[in-house]
Amino acid sequence: MPSLFEIPLDESVQVLKRVLPLMSQQRVPTIPQNYAIWYDYVTNKNDELSAELEGKISAQDEFDSETCRTLYEKFYLAELHAEVDGIQGAVRNAVESVLSELGGLGEEITHFSEVLDECGESLEDDPTPEDLNNLVVELVRETARTKARSQEVEGSLHTMASELTELRSQVDRLSRDSRTDALTGIANRRAFDEAIRRMTKEVGETGAPLCLILADIDHFKKFNDTHGHLVGDKVLRFVAQEIEQCVKGRDMLARYGGEEFAVLLPNTPIDGAMMLGESIRAIIEAQRVKNDQREDLEKTTISLGVAQFVAGESIESFIERADACLYASKHNGRNCVTSEEELAKH
Question: What is this structure's pTM?
Answer without folding.
Answer: 0.54
